[in-house]
Design goal:
alpha/beta, Rossmann fold, 277 residues, 7 strands
Amino acid sequence: MSLPKTEVCSVVITGSTKGIGLALAHAFLDLGCSIVIAGRNPEHLKQALSHLETHFNKEKFIGLCCDVTQVSDVQTLWDGAIERFGQVDVWINNAGSCHPTKDFIDLQPEELNAAVSTNILGTMLGSQVALKGMLKQGYGQIFNMEGWGSNGEWSAGMTPYATTKRAVSYFSKALYKETKSTAILTGTLSPGMVATDLLVSSWTNGNIQNWKKMKRLFFFVIDPPEVVCAYLAKQIIQNKKANRRIAWITPWKLFLRFLQPYYWRRNPVKGTALEHL
């Protein structure tokens, strides 16, 4: 087993002040876990903590500022989790950045740098710090977040982001090979397309025609974060296997959706800036 036989399960989630990360925090807290949320924006972190306080016991979670591209910040995140909860059972490298969905040639260097440094370097530094700590404590699970491109998918305007996620997929497989003789379990999470601020902003700030070309397909796969993350959290807690890929959307589940009228009628981006594009 990866998790120790204690009543406490402590989970660290990077990039968890909003979107999938915050929904994962909700899901783990619902399961009775202790949570450390993290983000690089102090104001967003404050808002996320205030939000959690309205739903859960404050003793069950803390928040720390962390820029995942800075190893000192990541180490401070690990140390803070240990100081508060005594252990880290699960570490999730969720922090991610997505550029506007434009042609590669039209993206600014800073947009490329943000996607590459956060998605690739941030995942590597998080994995390295967590792995060192977990080897010392003798147990733990590390999960990296997949995304569009992890399996070679391509769509217009997504080339750099998809490239970073393809890299994360390779890295995760390589990390498993380096750790398979240890007690540490590594794996990946595949949430599919989730209706978050990051999804909305990347498409609304990009080429609208790219969205229009793909939106009918996307409507079949986009889901609310709370539903997706409840499933992922439960699977993580129950996991006992290394190299585990926990996927919300599978080919079989997607096929079944095509047969159900509900998924032809629904609008998963209703109420967002994408609704009328």
